[in-house]
Amino acid sequence: MKKWSTYHCLGEVFRNSTAEYAHQDAIIEVNREKEVGRFSYGKLREEAERIASGFQRANLSAGDRCAILMSNQAKWHVSATAAFWSGAVLVPLDYKLTPSEQLALISHAEPRALVTEWPIWMRLQKEGDLSALKNVTVFVSEVPPREQLHSAQRWEEVSPGNFLYQERGREDVACIVYSSGTGGIPKGCMLTHGNYLSQAEQFTHLYRFEDGDRFFSILPTNHAIDFMLGFIYPQYFGATTVFQRTLRPEFLAHTMKAYGINAMAMVPLLLKAIETKLRGRLNELPPVKKAMASLLIGLNKFVSWRRPHPKISRRLLPAIHQGMGGKLRLVIAGGAYVDPKTAQFFYDIGIPVAIGYGLTESGTAVTVNDLKPFRADTVGTPCRGTKIDIRNPNDQGIGEVWVQGPTVMKGYFKSPELSEETLVDGWLRTGDLGFLEDSGHLVLKGRSKNMIVTEGGKNIYPEDIEITFEDLPGCQEFCVFARNYVWPTQNFKGDELLIVLRTREKERLEELLSVARDRNRKLADFKRLSSFLIWEEDFPRTASMKVKREKLARALEEKWPEQEGVQVL
Question: How many Å apart are CA 152 and CA 139, to the nearest integer?
Fold first, then answer.
């Protein structure tokens, strides 16, 4: 097996793996309790070369962009592999965004090709303005037989042809990954082949997959964690990625049992839901069995206090482990704040949760807990080769986290000014606050950036929300903030969005609020505002009339240090 450091690009990794593991399972796809697809590595190679030949006939050349807008499925992996073999820059898009948001990102990315699926394609068609797709060759999967495609090609009917593999270099951009929506400046992080190869090598020193292991992919593949651990990483080891199209707990449990899942990644929201269900079952046990379970959990804690012992844990707590497939040895958690109590609960029952910290601008992970010993109260130590510096610390040692290392992005696509603000002398300014322990563990304490991260791992930038509230009746000007940005709490939990309003006519305030509430209800629940505040002075602005957000936030904090003026929207 070649070392990650010897590869030039991701396409080369996939070429080698699909040849070396040709007869092993690469992908298994499940819908509810039914297996709907299975690809060997050899079949993956055959299908990827077919799609790559279609890309090249569509004049997709090395360095061109190829966007994928699909739900979690095998065709995502096939199409992404084909894009890399064509030398393209992959643009993974979130299928859960609205059609208008998706089209805005496509317009910004200017891809040569787009791969999508029938239900998403139909929603895009209904949006009306398809100018973003004017010069894009579109491939649509799962089109009903009787439907006609006038401006796109059927993914399944792309014919094989002469395919020429395109090699790329470690410094070439592999992906443009959008970390924000469309209301403000689209933040397309340019991550190189070297960024991804370095991150994969870092993981190899922490958590190795084995030949025959099965990784359960339940997060969207466009999510940074699943892109690395469910797409790139398993191929190197000849492991299998198992997809499940529904997140209903009963179907997750069935798939984990049926396919002997060894590892998976979760966002904290899902992890918490499973914890609640398990705790409920333990609490429902008869008194004697409940006492016995508590005793066995305590014994497992004693045995594994230095490091995990999966085999012993399965023997001590067989019912719990069988409920999660019986072979699960690792859960990777990240993308948002992980409650230490939740992580500790899973470790105590013998299912280690490796807490990590990262951001799109730095690949997948900056720090990870190596479980030796397990720490639920930190986000771990820096990955090998990554440096962390705490800038401008206060008297408690808490300052902004700056990162330097081989996984830090090249910059933001089409945004040199934003890149210069974020990348300073080779260091990435994260906007997160924290401190380093003497042990090297990073403890996060909040954010200095005007943004929130939901429990489901969604980055929400207030600037992206503002477009929804333009032209409110009787409103002179407005600005949206994360409440923790205005009133720092050194806490990641429970952050909310706040709109600051300067009214033109006070007698129209109720009308203004009624319209604002109506628009707010139409937003996705994780994007909704929770409160408002009335400000009676002009907003501070730059010469180009942009709101000076930080200056306004500090003025709000000074006037209402206890948040007295904040009202529920």
Answer: 6
